[in-house]
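Worked problem 6 (solution included).
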Amino acid sequence: MSCPFARENGLDPAQQGKNMVEFGGITYNSYLQLHKVLTAQTLMSEQDGKPVHDEHLFIVIHQAYELWFKQIIYEIDSVREIFSKEEVDEHKMLEIVKRMQRVTLILKLCVDQFLILETMTPLDFMEFRDYLSPASGFQSYQFRLLENKLGLKAELRVRYNQENYMKVFGNEPDIYKRIMASEEEPSLQSLLCRWLERTPGLEERGFNFWKKYKMAVDTILDDQLREAEAEDVEELRAHLQTQQKRRKELFDSIFDVRIHNGLMARGERRLTHKALQGALMISFYREEPRFNQPHQLLQLLMDVDSLMTKWRYNHVMLVQRMIGSQLIGTGGSSGYQYLRSTLSDRYKVFLDLFNLSTFLLPRNCIPPLTRQMKSRLSTMEETSSLVVTTTKPKEGQQRPDEGVSPSPTNFVSADSPCSMENGEEKHTTSDSDLEKSLENSMERSCEASM
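Solution. The predicted structure is:
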């Protein structure tokens, strides 16, 4: 079959079988600029006329890392751009989740790539190590960009040779400016906070999740205290009372804004108080349609943090294997000791997401959604089926449940009204009735689990 566009593009159909390169098409080699990529492996050991075989592997592995870092930064920047809008288009949540999944897969590949480098023995590395000084992996500016764009704060970094990490880039002004800019731009973590603060259901005049959540927690803590005081064995009673007191102090740290802000100031919390509320609400009601993809995103951000930590850990283990724990690194740092210090929680950007499990409740103690809140977290099609109306449409008038397309999963402003159509008599239980019975039902349901 001949190409219908051949003549239109100036090609004779009789010549279609010929290689398109003959007509000016791009080649695989030129498109990927392989003439640059494949000639970028210059072995320093060749200077003495005796190239070390494993140096080639060492270079290729690190160049591959840098290419993957570039792709990760590209994906993170695209997600940051979506979140940086004043009104986040929640239609793009699927695209955000897809790109963050891609980031996690790339990071998994980077973690596993150490296995290839570990085929090189310490003696093999020693043959060309002296040629590398003062070059160091610490000078990977793309990795610093990635950390900053994710949200790692400068004050939480371990000082490199007792100096600011940016000093190693002082002789490269263009790179220095890029890193400075990455510190000043809104990070993914800060943009996530702003987004979580707009989670539907946090508004005080509406569902007021935080009030209901605190009510449930208070019920559980009161039950635990009564159980402890009712214990006859003195040692066990004292133990239960101590456990209840500690748990109460833990919950006070999220209910008391001053305590929370103090923990943020010390770097022990990352999310703002309102954003923490949003993340908890998404975790509790993740099965609701509008919270499905936001919950996936929170899980992926934890995966990113975990994989970054695994990458650092593999790096630490490789360094210890190659040069031991006492030898100074090629860049002049303490080598193994410095790298090991980067494995602490201070380098976890999304630390609060990991710690959400500390504040989860048993399923039967989770505050039930009111009918209106259930409607807000559902699609329009699902909402229409939840309300039975007694009004009949006028002749020629469209029924409320006809031609309705699913609503977007927008995280609307807390002041956004979500009322149903006026003039309809709804056979529903009012939210005020649910509110009145919530405390009693919460107490009954929690007693069984505690």
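Discussion: The chain is about 55% helix and 0% strand.
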